[in-house]
């Protein structure tokens, strides 16, 4: 099939690579300009560079809604558009233009985790699996019929980086498998159960701020979700920003006020956690490694030279 590809960052790069290595003919690529957004500088393999290396025409757009783009799409005469990690709304006159419409490839198990940063949100929320979905685009974001979907398990110590590598390897089989089904003439696919749908916003550095009223289990997953190369989870100690690089849920249960620097346990220092911590039924978060405001990384047992005081959400 003649394919136009809309994509950005490593997700788009992997999609384009799969298409270029397939029997399909990539006739045009549309991608975003480079961004200085903290999250968009991560996994930033260039879609434009890959396309140009293979002699495929490239258009750079923030939004795909101008008449010139529409004219170029009509000239390209695609059988289908394939999109992955396109960051802005694609209007019906674009996604409905090809003979077979537009196939969107999304890194979640739709209908859950539509929108942005699905792997990070899924890890924070304790999901047992994540994956990649190829669906036909309609007017509602990430809501069209599912053509193909594959899942991978989430391990108890996985980071968001681990899940990125595991799911990005699914892009080629999911995308090409979906295109094979469409090329075979199949037109009916699996509608999404909208009663199970959830939609998440883009993450920002603010979303890495630790809230000590969260249960320790949630905070531990937040630390793993915000591991390198993502902006680290952070808190404040004695008015200074402190990044939490690694942590585990405590073995013991600790009561008191959320955020209290309380007790050395194993290789960590336990912080009281949970909105109902006063009842003494909660595990704490045992921080094991931190980074200070001046960039020093050290074990938490060396940083916290004495117990007492509080970690807080603001200085």
Major beta sheet, specifics? 7 strands, mixed
Shape: elongated
Number of strands: 16
Structural class: alpha/beta
The proportion of residues forming helix, as a percent range, comes to 10-25%
Q: What's the helix count?
A: 9
Low-confidence stretches: none
Give the strand line-up of the largest sheet. Answer: 3-2-1-4-5-7-8
Q: What's the overall average pLDDT, rounded?
A: 96
The amount of beta strand, in percent, is 25-35%
Distance N to C terminus: 57 Å
Radius of gyration over all CA atoms, rounded:
23 Å
Organism: Streptomyces nigra
InterPro entries: Formyl_trans_C (IPR005793), Formyl_transf_N (IPR002376), Formyl_transf_N_sf (IPR036477), Formyl_transferase-like_C_sf (IPR011034)
Domain Formyl transferase N-terminal: 1-169
Protein name: Methionyl-tRNA formyltransferase
Q: How would you describe what is shown here?
A:
It comes from Streptomyces nigra. This is Methionyl-tRNA formyltransferase. The chain has helices spanning about 10-20, 45-55, 65-75, 90-95, 120-125, 160-170, 170-185, 215-225, 300-305, and strands at about 1-5, 25-30, 60, 80-85, 100-105, 115, 130-135, 145-155, 200, 235, 240-255, 260-265, 270, 285-290, 295-300, 310. It has about 325 residues and is an alpha/beta fold. Helix 1 links the parallel strand 1 and strand 2 (about 25-30).
Compact description:
This is Methionyl-tRNA formyltransferase. This protein is an alpha/beta fold and 315 residues long.
Keywords:
315 residues, 9 helices, seven-stranded mixed sheet, Formyl_transf_N, 28% strand, alpha/beta, Methionyl-tRNA formyltransferase
């Amino acid at each position: 099939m003649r394919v136009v590809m809309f994509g950005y960052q490593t997700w788009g790069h992997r999609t384009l690579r799969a298409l270029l290595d397939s029997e399909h003919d990539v006739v045009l690529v549309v991608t975003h300009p480079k961004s200085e957004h903290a999250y968009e500088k991560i996994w930033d393999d260039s879609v434009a560079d890959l396309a140009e290396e293979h002699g495929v025409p490239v258009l750079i757009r923030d939004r795909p809604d101008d008449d010139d783009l529409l004219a170029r799409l009509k000239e390209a005469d695609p059988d289908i558009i394939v999109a992955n990690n396109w960051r802005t709304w694609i209007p019906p006159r674009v996604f409905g233009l090809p003979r077979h419409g537009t196939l969107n490839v999304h890194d979640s198990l739709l209908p859950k985790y539509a929108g942005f940063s699905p792997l990070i949100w899924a890890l924070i929320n304790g999901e047992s699996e994540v994956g990649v979905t190829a669906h036909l685009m309609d007017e509602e974001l990430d809501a069209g019929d599912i053509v193909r979907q594959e899942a991978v398990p989430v391990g108890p110590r996985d980071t968001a980086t681990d899940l990125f590598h595991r799911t990005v390897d699914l892009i080629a089989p999911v995308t090409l498998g979906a295109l094979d089904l469409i090329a075979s003439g199949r037109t009916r696919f699996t509608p999404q159960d909208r009663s199970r749908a959830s939609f998440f916003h883009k993450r920002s550095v603010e979303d890495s701020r630790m809230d000590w009223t969260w249960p320790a289990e949630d905070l531990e997953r937040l630390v793993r979700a915000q591991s390198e190369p993502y902006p680290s989870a952070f808190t404040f100690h004695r008015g200074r920003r402190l990044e939490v690089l690694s942590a585990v849920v405590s073995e013991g249960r600790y009561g008191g006020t959320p955020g209290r620097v309380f007790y050395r346990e194993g290789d960590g220092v336990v912080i009281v956690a949970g909105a109902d911590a006063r009842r003494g039924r909660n595990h704490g978060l045992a921080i094991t490694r931190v980074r200070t405001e001046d960039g020093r990384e050290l074990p938490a047992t060396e940083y916290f030279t004495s117990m007492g005081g509080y970690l807080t959400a603001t200085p």
